[in-house]
Amino acid sequence: MTRILHALAATLLLALAFALPARAAIDIVPVTSPGGITAWLYEDSTIPMVSLEASFRGGAALDPEGQAGVVNLMTALLEEGSGDLDATAFAQARDDLAADFSFDASRDEVSVSARMLSENLDASVDLLRAALVEPRFDADAVTRVRGQVVSNLRSDETDPDAIASRAFYAQAFPGHPYALPPDGTLATVADLDAEAVRAAHRAALAKDRLMIAVVGDIDAERLGPMLDRLFGDLPETGAPLPAVAEPATAGTLSVIDLDIPQSVVVFGHAGIPRDDPDFIPAFVMDQILGGGGFGSRLTEEVREKRGLTYGIYTYLAPGDFGALYMGRFSSANGRVAEALGILREEWARMAEEGVTEAELEDAKRYLTGAYPLRFDGNERIADQLLGLQTAGLDIDYVNERNDLVEAVTREDIARVARRILDPDRLTFVVVGRPEGVQATN
After folding, report:
1. pLDDT at res. 375
2. Long-range contacts of 162-170 (CB under 8 A, 24+ apart)
3. 156-198 pLDDT per residue, tens
4. Considering only CA atoms, which of 422, 293, 300, 253 is closest in space to residue 350?
5. What class does CATH assign to 3-231?
6. What is the pLDDT of residue 258?
7. What tens digit of pLDDT does each residue of 119-170 get?
8. What are phi and psi of 115, to 5 degrees?
9. Nearest-angstrom CA–CA distance, 422 and 314
10. Residue 101 pLDDT greater than 60, yes or no
11. b/e per residue, 110-137, with b = 16+ CB within 10 A?
12. pLDDT range class, residue 26, cuts 50, 70, 90
């Protein structure tokens, strides 16, 4: 990022540190362009800068059979030249405008992030449009970036965290796009060419799956036409989205041999979709069980009392096409078996007993107090607003969320814990050479 953007970001953080706590509500406005493209706008002229976050639903889940990693490769090539500009000229034009663009692909989406100075907004939007609508996908750029992806994939072959995550998803979603890593495999990426990348671009970047959030020094009147200029020339529809799958977590334990002193453990089972009415109680429950760091039960029992790990955590993973409740930790090979036993006990205890009033109040206090910190800059505000859209939440959720957390009762958590937590289906992938741990599949 340029020095100018760093300075502006620092200024904005200071301003928001004082402004946000005193603000009763964040005023988010839906804006629809003349061409029918909708965005959520939070106008703030504190500094002359605009942040944009956009998401194209589908992401790597749209990879055709035998081409795992092609959407990821396509996304990595969006800044490698567009229109009349090759990769070097594009980078120079972006830097001259003091703009910052980034593109990413996950299992669920292709995401676009942009930060642009108000004085250069029109030219920056035109450049970003060229990257999205007119990418060149030159053969030499495809070869170079594909080589970078292959290098990363080779590194992942010896990375225990990557090995464990990939194996868990492969077991949880057999025959589904989630079973394959978003960045592909060595076998599939090696065969990807410019033609495959162009097809992935047409499939993934379409207006029927587009969501947008804009924050900063721009009003609704100017934003509407800008949306059409930026996204209007994309295809109306993309490739069909995959079906939602129920995770096939059957309570098994897999051991993948790797000569390392500490084993890595990934665990989990089916979770809860983000738009489920029980998601907020589940979110509070997770904070208490394993998502709350040093305040969680698992940290207390596995790390603090017994010293079995440096860290253990859980998290809700409500993917668009399949929801999981997951966690991970690492432990010395000789202590993995004990850690697994404690984890299973705590999983069952939460399902059977729920939480105490003190635990619930501590979790609420933390979650409501930490929430405003998610809005400490244009980019983070835009990211939060986009996240609400992709989760299918109402535009007023940002102002209602803490009230929803405060309304959670012990009875809510007991109900949700019984519904979600299933010790018999808790599935483990262990990478390392754990002692006294017997694989069951």
Report:
1. 76
2. 163/256, 163/258, 163/264, 163/431, 164/256, 164/264, 164/265, 164/266, 164/328, 164/429, 164/430, 164/431, 165/266, 167/254, 167/256, 167/266, 167/429, 167/431, 168/266, 168/267, 168/268, 168/326, 168/427, 168/429
3. 999 999 999 999 999 999 999 999 999 999 999 999 999 999 9
4. 422
5. alpha beta
6. 97
7. 999 999 999 999 999 999 999 999 999 999 999 999 999 999 999 999 999 9
8. -125, 125
9. 14
10. yes
11. bbbbbbbbeebbeebbebbbbbbbebbb
12. confident
Residues 6+ apart with CB under 8 A from 16: 46, 375, 376, 377
Domain boundaries, the chain: 3-231, 253-432
Could you please state the CATH topology (level 3) that the domain comprising 253-432 is classified under: Cytochrome Bc1 Complex; Chain A, domain 1 (3.30.830)
* Identical topology for domains 3-231 and 253-432: yes
Q: For residue 158, give the amino acid letter.
A: T
Amino acid code (one letter) for 146? R
The model's pTM is 0.90
414: which 2 tokens?
């007991």
**pLDDT at position 63, please?**
98
Q: Token digits for 325?
A: 């409740």
Name the maximum alpha-carbon separation found in the chain.
66
216 Cβ neighbours under 8 A, 6+ residues apart: 43, 44, 45, 47, 49, 50, 51, 118, 378
Task: DSSP for 244-297, please give it.
Answer: P------S-EEEEE---SEEEEEEEEE---TTSTTHHHHHHHHIIIIITGGGSH
At residue 73, what is the residue type?
Answer: L
| Cβ neighbours around 236 below 10 Å, total | 7
Which residue type, as a one-letter code, is found at position 190?
Answer: A
Average pLDDT over the chain, rounded to whole?
Answer: 92
Q: How far apart are CA 127 and CA 89, in angstroms?
A: 11
DSSP letter (8 states) at residue 58: T
DSSP calls for 137-186: --HHHHHHHHHHHHHHHHHHTT-HHHHHHHHHHHHHSTTSGGGS-TT--H
Judging by DSSP bridges, how do beta strands 322-332 and 262-270 pair with one another? antiparallel
Which amino acid type is present at position 195? E
Long-range contacts, 397-402 (Cβ 8 Å, 24+): 398/26, 398/28, 399/25, 399/26, 401/371, 402/367, 402/368, 402/371
HSE of 27 in the Cβ direction (CA atoms, 13 Å)? 6
CA dist 159 and 74 (Å) reads: 24
Do the beta carbons of residue 381 and residue 257 sit within 8 Å?
Answer: no
